[in-house]
Amino acid sequence: MTRKVIQSFGLEHRCTAIFSTGAKMLREMPDQEAEICILCEQARVIEQKRHIAFRQRTDKGDVSCRVAVQFNVCPQCGFEYWDDHAEAGLDEAVREAYEKLT
After folding, report:
1. Which of 27, 36, 20 is nearest to 69 (CA)?
2. Which residues have CB under 8 Å from 15's CB, separation 6+?
3. Distance of CA 43 to the CA centre of its chain
4. Range list of H helices, the chain
5. Would you give the DSSP letter of residue 89?
6. What confidence tens digit (pLDDT) does each residue in 86-101 have?
């Protein structure tokens, strides 16, 4: 289990995210397009799509979400991170679950 602070509805919330173990590699990017690892700066990252299940506390109660997120993974140092686009997907999942609460 990995803990991460996510931004949602203008407030910071703590959530517990469970990353699926069967991560499927989307593609290895060609060298000219691949991003260099922001941690080790030694290798080009590989994009992987993973499903994340997490719970988020809101003013209407907790919501459970499951969303596919694209990770950038460094094959050299193992550092994993997601970008703003993935973060927006998490926020959208929380928003949709939030709207279903009565």
Report:
1. 20
2. 3, 4, 5, 6, 54, 55, 56, 57
3. 21
4. 84-100
5. H
6. 999 999 999 999 999 9
> What tokens appear for 33 in the block?
């397009």
Pairing of strands 11-19, 2-8: antiparallel
Model confidence, pTM: 0.61
Q: Give 23-26 contacts, CB < 8 A, sequence gap 24+.
A: 23/48, 23/49, 23/50, 23/71, 24/48, 24/49, 24/50, 26/70
The total of other beta-carbon atoms located within 10 Å of residue 37's CB is: 20
Contact 82, 4 (CB under 8 A): no
Domains of the chain, residue spans: 2-100
Residue 86 backbone phi and psi in degrees, to 5: -65, -40
